[in-house]
Amino acid sequence: MTKKIVSVLFLSLFILIALVGCGATDSSTGNEGNKENNGDEKSNNEILIGITQNNVGIDSYQTTYENAFKDHAEDLGVRTIVLDAGGDVARQINQMEDLIQQNVDVIIVWPVNGKAIVPAARNAKEAGIPVLITNSPIDESGFDMVSGYTGPDNVLQGKLAAEMMIEALGGKGKVVEIMGLPGYVTSAERSQGFREEIEQNSEIEIIETQPGDWNREKGQRVMEDFLTKYREIDGVYSANDDMAAGAINALKESGRLEDVKITSSTLFAVGYDAIKRGELYGSVQQSPVEDAKLALETAIDIALGKEVPFFNYFETPKVTEENIDQFEKPIF
User: What range does the domain containing 265 cover?
Assistant: First the structure.
């Protein structure tokens, strides 16, 4: 009888030890998991964001974007490395490689060329560094290499400019187009949106398209060529207000400004004033401050491991003489 009691006691003790052991293992695992999660969490001042921009010196929009980016990073307590490619694709690729070597948490790219940077984006992904595209989308062949895009919906901007053109011309007439820099995705998308809307919802004919390279002087020269070639021009679509200002100058000099309606994208201060004077029918508001803040905030979310949408757009409303008083004059 004594042996049976001892056996029962021994078996009970063995079961108790086993249960306690299992409980200790589960508790330990849970604590380790919590430590690991806490270790992954970062405060803003531990995040390092690198950005390589397209060409800060090309226009006041990019200058304003850069200043807003730096100011917002300081407000949020985030460390940044801010670079400018100066419009040079090779330089931008080298800058991306440098940011990879510096082991930043996220690389933001304002592409000089949406196709050329795809291999560099691939290198960053292979190094475990997310890439976020800002302002001008990357070529679709690189979508798998990046974490997302922030900025304006450029196709929509072209569509909105077309809606204003249709309204200005009553749906009929002949129009010329001054597009942005060739090979630049933004240029292609704004042209695409404009053309699709015109072709689907009007009888307007787009008689020719020429690049103005985002430059006022080039836009003026292109418009002068159009005026020499065509006796009848009812409207001009410009992909940004700087080139639209050049077109306005050419039309003034030829004495034909009153006969031509102009619509544009990316409302600049010069465009704002032109709308007020009745020289520019309408443009599309696009804030470089909102552009910069959205890029930085999205990059921080990516660095913290949060899920973000692939396309992150901000609003770009139409601005005409009828509603311009609802908008502040741009500082760029």
Answer: 154-285
